[in-house]
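Practice problem: predict the structure.
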Amino acid sequence: MTKYIIVCMMGLLAWTSSMKGQVFHPNNDVGVFAGVSYYLGEINPRRQFYNPGMALGVLFKQNFTEHHCFRFNAFYGQLKGNDLDFKNEYQQMRAHSFDTSLLDCHIGYEFNFLPYVLNRWKTAYTPYMFAGVGFSYIISSSTGMAENHATIPFGVGFKYRFNERLSVGCEWGMRKAFSDKLDGILNPGPDGSYATSHNNDWYSFAGLYVTFRIFEKEFECPGIKEEKKYR
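Answer:
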């Protein structure tokens, strides 16, 4: 038992030593996003990056710890689809098409798989995943059926810090739309009625972003009286 306790204490001491100097400073990132947006639904059931449209946006991230982050995004995107792009006989006969632009907003949680330590002595990079809740505001639609609706966003990304302030990243995220009218085609159930459970409409954003760190909280020394200030 004594040997077990000694081994555990040595392990704890080694872990504590490795963490010395790795004090995390909570901080905020603001940035811009550019990439593409695309649609999945009745016209395009499974082809990723089909008929991509332009996507632009802004984002805000509040880094609580080196692994946990709160995020807010506001993205503009274009969604397009045309039955004639597919060889399916039914779609060739239906020949439906649509063109919709929307504003996608969401808040969510982001988890960094690696410690994302923002200090001048350690390079920071990590893959991450995110999920949250959102809302889609329809700006224009060629079908006249598209409507504002709630969404469930989720996705993955990778980010890298160049210096104490500037970071870059890439991200690919899906949006589950709580509306079956993005493409102007409703998907009925077996009884011919329309319900949310038969909704096939999704959309996605993929692209690159640049962020700038602001309002970092600093601490004079972990062992002394904590002094918080903003720079």
